[in-house]
Amino acid sequence: MATRSRLDSPAHHEADTAEDLVRIGDELVTPGIDDLDKPPPTKRLCPGSKFCPTRYSMSVMPTAIDHWEALAYGASTPAPTQASDRSSISPRWISDSTRSPHDLFLKQITGSQAIDDAPRNPQPTSSALLIRQTGARTNTDMTGSRYALNLSPSSLREVDSELYRAASLLPVLSHADLEAIESFENLRAKKSEMQDNSLVASPPLNLAPEDTPSFPQMKKLPGEIRRKIYGFVLSTGALIRPRLNDRPHGNLIKFYDGNESGHDAIRNLSNLTLVSKQVCEESLPVFYNENTFACDDDTLTYFEHLSHTGRFHMLRNVSFVVQLSSDKQQAVRTVRLIHQAKTEARKYEEAITMNAWDRLEMLHENNRYSYEPPPPTQRWTPRPSFAEIAVNSPWILQNHPLYVAGGLSCLCSFLALQKLATPNADPDSAYTHEIAIMVPHARIFSDYPRLSWFTAAAESLGIRLRFVEGKRAVYSRGGVRLEWRQRYQKKDFGADEVAAAAVGALAITEEQENEKIQQALEKLTPEWRTGIMPRKVLYYRTHSRGLADEKMVWYQIDTENGKFERQGK
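Above: the chain sequence. Below: its structure as C-alpha cells.
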C-alpha cells in the first residue's frame, strides 16, 4: 500500500515554508527541522524547555509540535498569556510576499487553494493524531513507536542527518517529482514522532539495563538496614592487600588491591561512596568494617596514608602472618631493626617538615615586599605537619624509611600492630601498648618453639598481647596467619582517640624510647650488643606500573650505619 504524504492534505502549506519560525525561549528554530542551512548540531538545549531525557536535546518541545502541526492544518494558535512564559509558543503567519522561491514553488505544484480554502478554527489536534491523518507509515508493535525506531540519541542523530540531506535538495527541485517531497515529509513526520514519544509518551531514557532493579525508597529505610545493604555491596569476600601504585599520577596517591587482577577493582566497588555526601558518610565506614586488610609490603604505607587523610580509625579487621623461625636471635634482630626504622623515620619526617617550612617562610618573606602583603596578624609562618605535606606527595611515601622496612614481613607485622595497639596511660607500667589478637589457642606460642620469638619481641617492644581464642589456624607464606579485630580490643576507636594516642606517642622522647628498648634487650639476652648482626639486609619487591608492566626493585637495609635505601630501579 502506497504511503500517503502530508502533501495530500489541502492545508499543509502554511507550515512547509523555510521561514515559518517558532520562537522557543531566545532561539528561533524551524518547525519540524532544526536548521536547513547548517548541519545538525551535536548537542543542543532549548533555553525555555525542560530537561530532555536523552543526551541529544530536542529543539522543539511537544507544545511546539502541537502548535506547528495545528498551524499546518490552518489552526489559529492563541498567543501566550505572559511574555515571560518561555515554554509557550507563539507562531507567526508569513504572507506570500515574504515567502522564499522554494515555498512558492511548493505552493504552485500542490495547488494555490490549499492555503486560501484551509479552515481557520479547527479543534487543537495532537501531533501524533495529525501524523496519522497524513497517512504516514505506522508500526505500533515496537516500544509504542509508529516508526519502529529505538528512541536513542544515535537514532535521533541518524534521522537528523537524513532530514538535513533531504532538506538540502529542496531548493533545486524545479524539475523534481513528488516522491522526493514525500520522502522529505515522511522524514519530518518521523522526527516529530520520535520527539513526541521521547518527550510525552515515553518515560525518560534509561541507559541502564532493563533488568536492573531500582529502589527509590532507600533513604527512607532505617540506618541499620541501610548499613546492612551497604555491607552486602561493599564486601570483597577476600583479603585486601594494599599496593601503592607507583605510576606517575602527579600528586595523586593511589592504592590498589594486590589480590585483584585489575587495578580498578576496589575503585569500582567503592563507587557507591560517590553518589552523595550522605551516602559517602554512611557507606565509607561500612567498607572498612566489612573488609579485612592483610599486612603486605605496602600495608604499613597504606595505614600511614589513612592516618594522613583521617580514616585510620575506621579500620576494624587486619590480618598478619607470624613467621616460623628457629633462629634464637630472631627476636633481637627484629627489635633492633624496628628501633632503627622508627629512628630513621623520625629523622626523615623532621627533615621533610623543616624543608617545607623553609620554603613557606621564604614565600612569606617574599610576600612582605610584594604588592599584596599578608595580613598584619600573620607575623610568623606556622610550621606544617608531616601529614599535611605527605598527603599529596607520592614520592615522600616511596622514600619513607617505613616504606622500605615494610617489605620485611616481621617488621611490617610489628609496626602495624604497634600502630593498632592501644596506648597504655600508666607511666609506671612496663608496657606502653596493649593489643588483642585472635589465635587458635593461647598456648600456641609456648607449644611451638618456632613461634616463641614473636612474644619475646612484642614484650621487648613494650606491647602487651591479649589472646582471643577460637580462630582456625591457617598456614600462609611460611607462617601462621592471625587476625586483629577492633571489637575485641576496646569499645571505642574513634578519630579523637587515635589523635590523642598520636600526641601521647610524640610526648615520649627519643632518649626515653632508646632506654626502654635497651633495657628490654638486656632482659631478653645480655649478649645482644655482641650478638651476630648482619651488616645489611637485601630484599626485592615487584612494582607494578600497570597490568602488563611489572619490574623488580631491590632494597637495602644497612644495619651498621642505620640506612634504609632503595638500591635499583
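DSSP finds 19 helices and 14 strands in the chain.
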